[in-house]
């Protein structure tokens, strides 16, 4: 992913280097005054549906799938299945048979692994303990209910008015005492094993304090009994057609993944909209609403809204049960601590073809088989033409194959019918248009319309705001660019990567303003502050470290500049020799100026100048032995 950067030209001549490196005829005294000319270059960190972009693509098997950001349109927006001769989605019969066999094998492997990692039947077969509560059913609209990846008709049998989809226990399934005991078991475990610090799990773009339940023995033991006596019987009660139709019914259910999360304002940011890695899912609220602020789960297409929002917030011990294919997201926790358990459930005898095809597609992407991955996603589209993630994944792979025009057309199928309110599809299309990858030339107006659509769907879509900032940059509208990036950093839902890009670009804009209109130390200090805020969000950015070094250098803060440039060298991608060598040259110059300043002070104090050996030792210490050695080799080649 490209990062925004502010590059400052810092040319280093062989003659300058010779003042430290003992070439023949080397000068004895380094220059004290060096002119530093500055140019600024900015790139935009795109949020495309790729694994390393700002938002992940539609993934399964434990990784949330980023899909639409708000309820989709009415049932009339759903397209008919693609025609067999449609070249975008056509795949041969033999390929179709082959990938379905691979997906089925993947399902069997995942089901066997789940049964081993969470052997809930050790305590006997599942059975109602007699303690099941009543359930409050919540409905989703028809368009949502008809777009599940697998077994939609069985999981959500409904009508044009929608279907009952989410079942919340009322009263709570678990008592306050039992719920608190689970939290205490977890806290005691980490106090004894990790100094009180919880492990972290990746949830979409965020690292959240949490653990897989199988890894904490006391919680795992409690959880297996809860599955057998209450959780799985509840799923059977609410989804009898799916659970009981094949095999041994409830006893064929396996828990694909289960975790405990500890959300705080720092880690409990609003998640991406996603689906779960199981045909059925449940969420358990472990503590009361009086212990945290915010939180709750937003569901796409929820018909009965509370307080104008499609959000369900549960009481302590309550559980919600639902099909895993319903799009949802966790809302931000703004105060206190919220504890939840999430569980994803599969059926050993029910082959979830589309979900497994998506998982298989990503395996092929990881293995470098992009053509094979594209065929897999095409088969997924043919099996579930109303499931927008299959289209988005296909577009992502086509883009990786360099077939951007086809990728754009696939995305237009989503925005034009399959799911007109898919924020991810609109953004991905807008980014293709902005970069000119869909038509051979940038369509900034079309891209702006796509980003506007994203913000109509979700007014807090920070990446769409950043997209507008990039468009303003391309139009040389610096004031508009500044306004958009300021909106990004003020947005409470902005993820750290996007915030880092925005802060860095704001620093670049300050530099450009200073170059145009003049400005002193105060403006340089503001610019430096932007870069430091960017590094607080993303400390691994080569570009921001380099930009910080350039700003410090222009302010005569050579020691700070040297530290930043050395950090930039350490963050450059392996094999990116141009970036590494640029940072090395800047690091040498900053180190040289730092030594010059020190030498000047010593001369003013009447002290003898440092020897050649002492200066070599100083510059080596500033640059690091490995960096200095490479820099010397570079300069020797130029000489």
Descriptive notes:
The relative contact order is 0.13. By secondary structure, the protein is an alpha+beta fold. The strands form three sheets. An eight-stranded antiparallel beta sheet has the order 1-2-10-6-13-5-4-3. Strands 9-8-11 form a three-stranded antiparallel beta sheet, with no helix packed on it. It has helices at 14-17, 93-117, 142-145, 152-155, 176-193, 217-238, 240-244, 353-366, 370-383, 388-400, 404-418, 423-435, 444-457, 462-474, 478-490, 496-517, 521-537, 542-554, 558-571, 577-604, 612-623, 625-638; strands at residues 134-140, 163-170, 200-203, 206-212, 253-263, 280-285, 292-294, 297-299, 311-312, 319-323, 328-330, 333-336, 338-347. The longest helix is centred in the last third of the chain and has 28 residues, at 577-604. It is built from 22 helices and 13 strands. The chain starts with 13 loop residues before the first helix and ends with a helix.
